[in-house]
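[audit] Reproducing an earlier prediction to check determinism. Same input, same settings, fresh worker. If the tokens differ from the archived copy the diff job will pick it up downstream; this log only records the rerun itself.
[audit] input (537 residues):
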Amino acid sequence: MAREQLGVLNALDAAKTQWYHFTAIVIAGMGFFTDAYDLFCISLVTKLLGRIYYHVDGRKKPGTLPPNVAAAVTGVALVGTLAGQLFFGWLGDKMGRKKVYGITLLLMVVCSIASGLSFGSSRKGVMATLCFFRFWLGFGIGGDYPLSATIMSEYANKKTRGAFIAAVFAMQGFGILSGGIVALIVSASFDQAFKAPTYSENPIASTVPQADYVWRIILMFGAFPAALTYYWRMKMPETARYTALVAKNSKQAAADMSKVLNVDLQAEEDTVIKMAANEANSFGLFSKEFLKRHGLHLLGTTSTWFLLDIAYYSQNLFQKDIFTAIGWIPKAENMNAIHELYKIAKAQTLIALCSTVPGYWFTVAFIDVMGRFAIQLMGFFFMTVFMFALAIPYHHWTLKPNRIGFVIMYSLTFFFANFGPNATTFVVPAEIFPARLRSTCHGISAAAGKAGAIVGAFGFLYAAQNTDPSKTDAGYPPGIGVRYSLIMLGVVNFFGMLFTFLVPESKGKSLEELTGEIEDEAAETELQTGPTRTVPV
């Protein structure tokens, strides 16, 4: 006999798309706007930091951050994010989604502002202070991943749930785009106001004292979008699925959702008691039952996110070097410090506008039509194809007549990352695990992704260096070069495609149906012996 589903959860599953859905998308999405802005804007200002704080008199090239400092500045927020995903993911299942949601936002706002106010009597002091605040900024950002995904999945109806969760994540695209636009406006304004010669003309005068304000303004701006949504986050009620299935308070769940949905819902305390008494709704994360039911699912979500982020973050972090290699950005010595930032921001903004942002919204449009599995498999496949197409004839793409072709191919890899695994790896973990473990499992999956990001960010700072020692960036040993780095990323994407087969399709099903919290015995047996997947062919 089938277990009973709570009326309040049925009402959420069957609800027509209405105003509260869009409100939830914006409230949760602005956190992701800030997340993306903060994590990616640091890649815009690293060369400026090198010129300001690590200038060496007599050198032919401008100052650059030493390898250990560059790795710390770009990677420390990723380490903080990983820690935050694990901690706040666990806390979201223990204390409730809403209680923890405000803490993460406050942490982001305070640490965004503090990052821009990183002062010290020496360059080491400035860099140490910057790294300290960016770690805690990352910690807050990390909490937003499992909480935003879980809240949106638990508020959404089953027909358009994928699109709603993907729309929250798609705000990252606008965050990346805004990072580029803010950097363009600030750098263009300062470049116009404080004229400076190129480095080759006058090394000292090429970096005006006011350049120190530029990077600080760019970093601090990330606080404003998050601050604007704090009030509305605090006004959101706890999700009905947490209140009813985890806190076991059906009366409160019915009262909260009656207000949200504008319908009368009855508390069903007997049904909650029955569901709580069932062993299938009580096993823990480290139990044999979890391993049997969801072990392969967790392996699938963690491995695909890990592999995706190796490729995704390494591309973002060394894309300015690719732009230099193909001639989009002139040699550093032929620009002043602020104009170099302007050129890097212009290139990143164009990539975001042409490929990153559209890719996210293609996922929003098609995820509930094609399904998560098909989009993820397709995305990894095309990322693999385009990476190899860039890498194998790499010399061909560096020739001046072919540079635009290179940029188009490079943009397509970003398009299929975002219309593909970058979005689906975020969506699926919020759907396929039980309510009492949903935030934790999403946090674990996201943390695996950030581990991949750390591998990509740290590893490819070194790997992408030229094989010729005389052509490497200051302080770096020779690497394998951009071509072989791209080949490695192609292989990584291929393995992502293989691990996608461990991830179940969740399109069109209720969360409780997916997790086994309301299954009948026959369906439970099927879940334990092996999940079936509906894949478009």
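[audit] rerun output stored. Observation attached for the diff report: The chain has 21 helices and no strands.
[audit] end
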